[in-house]
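User: My collaborator sent over this chain with a note saying "see what the structure looks like." That's all I know about it. Can you take a look?
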Amino acid sequence: MGSKPKIPDPVPPPAPPPPPEPVAERVDNAAAKKRKQVKRRGASSLTVRRATVNTGSSGSGANINY
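Assistant: Without extra context I'll predict from the sequence alone. Here is the result:
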């Protein structure tokens, strides 16, 4: 028969990943922390504050015009 089929050279393995770099520890900002924890007094402390729900241009509610 003819000559043998040529086998391609084996692919070299990928290079190892670089060593991990030192990571700075997270520093808590005391001023930002105080702003988040707002002390509410009176009736406002009983209410749950939520973002308003956008109902779109149709506007659903008690005052519906027929």
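A starting point for your reply to your collaborator: The mean pLDDT is 75.
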